[in-house]
Amino acid sequence: MTRAAVFDLDGTLVDSVADITRAMNRALEGASLPPVGEAQVEPALGHGALELVRACVRAVDGARADDDAFVEELRRAYLAAYAADPAPCTRVHADAATALPALRDAGVVLGVCTNKETGLARQVLRAVGLGDAIAVVRGRDATRHPKPDPRHLLETVARLGARPEDAVYVGDNPVDVAVARAAGVRYRHVAWGVPVDDGVAALERFADLLEEEVPAWRR
Questions:
Q1: What is the pTM of this model?
Q2: Are 109 and 189 found together in one domain?
């Protein structure tokens, strides 16, 4: 039996809103559009770069949000700006920096299932010191079925060599709740995430997973 823990990235493992907003504003500036604030960016996270860009364009120039060619061009500019300097302000949430290596060392295989592009996700994880702890990163570009399709999560679990019943998924928003339920994977909701009232178990710190997922003799 392989125990696996899979994490969403933005909003779950890391607080990346400031860096995403900065990159978005560089792209908007290049298109002669006004800037957005973190309050406009944060609710749009979790659905991939295209939807993020579209939401930000809608916030500053609604008439152009339905121009697919323009949104795609802006998406490319945003991703280039983000990849150039992805994490100067990004920080891990709670005790991720110590708890995830401890989980790995105790034999739990760790993965990230995110709608961020895989390469960018890896850059961010390395920047915050979690690159070595994560065995598998499966971004939106690595699957034909990105979240909210549960197959994205199931593919990540399979790549870790685990079964759905032997995995736990940790997220921060209602989409993550729905994905885990549809995939038949146990779910934990981080306490700093979007409030949900679906009876999901809250996770105050990542170290709690060590007690839940690892037998005492292996800790």
A1: 0.93
A2: yes
Number of domains in the chain: 2
| Residue 7, C-beta contacts closer than 8 angstroms, at least 6 positions apart | 13, 110, 111, 112, 113, 169, 170, 171
Residues 146, 48 contacting (CB under 8 angstroms): yes
Determine whether 8 is an active site residue. yes
60-to-22, 80, 85, 138 alpha-carbon distances in Å: 15, 21, 24, 31
Q: What is the mean pLDDT of residues 70-95?
A: 97
Q: How is the chain split among helix, strand and coil, in percent rounded to 5?
A: 50, 15, 35
The whole-angstrom separation of Cα 90 and Cα 88 is 6
Q: What is the pLDDT of residues 107-117, one digit of tens each?
A: 999 999 999 99
Question: Which residue from 10, 16, 38 is spatially nearest to 137, judged by alpha carbons?
Answer: 10
Residue 68 corresponds to which tokens in the numbers above?
């697919």
Domain span at 199: 4-15+89-218
Q: CA 114 to CA 156: how far, in whole Å?
A: 10
Residue 211 confidence (pLDDT) above 90: no
pLDDT in the model for residue 199: 82
C-beta of residue 140 within 8 angstroms of C-beta of residue 115: yes
Per cent of the chain over pLDDT 70 is 97
Is 10 found in the same domain as 24?
A: no
| Nearest-5° Cα angle at 106, 115 to 174 | 30
Given 8, 10, 166, 172, the catalytic residue: 8
Choose one of 84, 118, 136: the last residue of a domain. Answer: 84
